[in-house]
Design a protein that fits this description.
The protein is an alpha+beta fold. Helix content is about 35%, strand content about 20%. The chain has 13 helices and 19 strands. The strands form six sheets. A five-stranded mixed β-sheet has the order 8-9-12-13-10. Strands 17-16-15-18-19 form a five-stranded mixed β-sheet, sandwiched between helices. A three-stranded antiparallel β-sheet has the order 3-6-5. Strand 5 and strand 6 form a beta hairpin. The longest helix is centred in the middle third of the chain and has 20 residues. The N and C termini lie far apart (about 70 Å). About 0% of the residues have low confidence.
Length: about 350
């Protein structure tokens, strides 16, 4: 006989006799039904019956009143059925049962669950045969099988360990070919850029912008005075730019002509997490066509690093610029989280990932 049971939630509940459960004031589902109550959490204990079925005990402190429509009808008494075990269950429609999380054995099987508890409700077919409903919360979920071979339990990416290893080897080989390819790019026409902002939303403003080229030459590195924001305490803790530091800095509008000239001369614009930077810098362009032309030039170093990491270090999950530099053994040049240090770091990460990117 089982001494304890591990639930899907990860909780472990003990096996109790009816007498022990009564001492703890635990309630069976039958008692809950009679009191028009429903559990709101995991069972507190269980009993394995002689026929192998399971009876759950629930903590009275973790129940709630059942919806009245489940138990009452305005003109007639609710229909019930008494099972062989003595449990009384109510009749309800399939729609109402689904709303309560109750399903048939067949439906639960399709959802990859096994039933171990008695029915909690029922309905009747047109021929008066009975359809039983079971509580999904107390059903046991079967291990999901590999979507490729279907022979073993899933490990990662919906694949078993063997299929995942094969898939990983294939993805790694394809990724290594992609990164080793010769792109013949001119270093002076490949630009890396980074922005520091007053916040993370599109209405936030740029506080600094840094641009370097593939040679490591600093093309632009300047603070920017926001037009509207006066303080940005949350992001100030990250990049260290204070309102006093940008008090005499140029406004973005003053820099737009030069930024446009620099970007126009580039073949590629690369940033680490380019979507955030692009979502702010695109507004220096008036037309959608200009913004689309800018977007076509952009490349994301973080996407490329995540691909490399997933192919070579699948156990690692964090992929910030700091994580990339640590994994690729790149030293910071300057203070991390400033736009110039992040721009230089991004350029180093890119060249490490794509050693044959430039024509030299």
């Amino acid at each position: 006989m089982k001494t304890d049971m591990k639930l899907r939630s990860g909780a472990t509940i003990p096996h109790l006799s009816p007498i022990e459960a009564e001492r703890k004031n635990y309630l069976t589902r039958d008692i809950l039904n009679r009191m028009h109550l429903m559990p709101v959490g995991d069972p507190a204990a269980f009993l394995e019956n002689e026929d192998g079925s399971i009876t759950y005990f629930f903590d009275p402190g973790r129940v709630t009143e059942a919806p009245p429509e489940l138990w009452y009808a305005p003109t007639q008494k609710s229909e019930t059925m008494i099972l062989e075990s003595g449990l009384e269950i109510a009749r309800m429609s399939t729609k109402r049962a689904a709303a309560c999380g109750f399903y048939t054995v067949e439906r639960l099987s399709q959802m990859n669950y096994d039933v171990i508890e008695e029915p909690v409700a029922y309905t009747l077919r047109s021929d008066k045969s009975v359809i039983y409903f079971y509580d999904k919360k107390t059903a046991i979920r079967r291990p999901l099988m590999c979507v490729h071979c279907g022979k073993d339990v899933r490990y990662r990416r919906k694949l078993c360990k063997a299929c995942f290893a094969e898939d990983l080897a294939l993805r790694r080989a394809e990724g290594d070919l992609h990164r080793a390819e010769h792109y013949h790019m001119k270093r002076e026409r490949v630009l890396f850029f980074d922005l520091e902002l007053t916040g993370v939303y599109t209405h936030d403003e740029i506080l600094s912008i840094s641009i370097t080229d593939g040679n490591g030459k600093i093309v632009m590195d300047t603070l920017v005075k926001p037009d509207h924001k006066k303080k940005w305490k949350q992001t100030e803790k990250i990049h260290g730019i204070t309102p006093e530091m940008v008090a005499d800095a140029p406004h973005l509008g003053d820099l737009v002509p030069e930024i446009k000239r620099i970007f126009a001369a580039a073949d590629v614009l690369i940033a680490y997490g380019v979507s955030t930077d692009y979502s702010h810098i695109k507004y220096i362009y008036e037309t959608e066509a200009e913004r689309e032309a800018l977007h076509e030039k952009t490349r994301c170093a973080s996407i490329e690093f995540v691909r490399f990491q997933s192919e070579h270090y699948p156990d690692l999950v964090h992929a910030s610029l700091s994580d990339a530099m640590a994994l690729l053994e790149i030293e910071w040049d300057g203070v991390a989280h400033t736009s110039i240090a992040d721009t230089i770091g991004c350029a180093k990460v890119w060249e490490k990932l794509f050693p044959n990117y430039y024509e030299d």
